[in-house]
Amino acid sequence: MEDKNLSLRLKAVKETVKKCRKVADIGCDHGYVPIALVSGGIAESAICCDINKGPLTGADYNIKMAGLEGRIETRLSDGLHNITADDGVDAIVIAGMGGRLMSDILISERDKLEGVKQMVLQPQSELFLIRKAVRELSFHIESERFLKDMGKYYTVIDVLPGRVNYKEPEYTELYDIYSEYLINSKDELYLEYIRNSIKVNEGYLLNIEEAKRSPLNKKLDELRTVERLMT
User: Fold this and answer.
1) Is 99 within 8 Å of 126 (Cβ atoms)?
2) Contact (Cβ atoms closer than 8 angstroms) between residue 154 and residue 147
3) CA–CA dist 74, 72 (Å, integer)
4) What is the number of structural domains in the chain?
5) Exposure pattern of 69-101 as b/e (b: 16+ CB <10 Å)?
């Protein structure tokens, strides 16, 4: 499958994966990313995992059309549950899930991460839970990629083994929510997003009663701190 058949979001996920022996795509949908990884020579082989049979049926068809039946298998699995040490997985992709579900999958199946050299995670929400889980699992965030696809913003997180604490621990909560990497790299699109978020939340502040303003004021303080750190 050529990259042009991937959305910008999935293309960013695919481009983040380093060369590996076997990649497991958890919640694979129709198998587009594993097909692109194997056909592009990034992964030697792949396992497409999904909790539902429907997506796997679609993945089976796409794998066959790509002529990759011998190198990509599909497997019914709730998260990492049906991945075993014998599979030899050294890279994991999880894209398009909520951050809470994604972190629960990783933490509950942490024994399956032994031998994994890279995880590429693209949570749809609650990214702070992923950043916390990465530390808890003794991995670290190597980089993050922020992009806009079809009017929505996405973050693709490159995770490698070995715990690395934040260089400025006083910003731990802020970095968990807003990303140490994106702040320190002064990502232009992310700064645009932060500034827009400030304007939107300032607008909200004008339309709510005084008693309910405290959480919003806290969020605005955080956003303004991020803007200051990025400029």
Assistant:
1) yes
2) yes
3) 7
4) 2
5) eebbbbbebebbbebeeebebbbbbbbbbebeb
Of 115, 82, 121, give the one whose Cα is nearest residue 102. 121
Read off the CATH number of the domain in which 45 is found.
3.40.50.150
Residue with tokens 């309910």: 212
Task: Tell me, yes or no, whether 26 and 54 share the same domain.
Answer: yes
Residues 159 and 183 both lie in one domain: no
- pLDDT tens, residue by residue, 11-70: 999 999 999 999 999 999 889 999 999 999 999 999 999 999 999 999 999 999 999 999
Q: Which helix (H) or strand (E) holds 161?
A: strand 152-161
Tokens 């599979």: give the residue.
Answer: 87
Q: Is residue 1 pLDDT above 80, yes or no?
A: no
Count of all residues that appear for the chain in the document: 231
Helices (H), the chain: 8-16, 32-39, 53-65, 99-108, 127-136, 172-178, 180-184, 188-206, 214-230
Structure tokens at 113: 């991460």
Q: What is the pLDDT of residues 87-132, one digit of tens each?
A: 999 999 999 999 999 999 999 999 999 999 999 999 999 999 999 9
How far is residue 152 CA from its own chain's centroid? 15
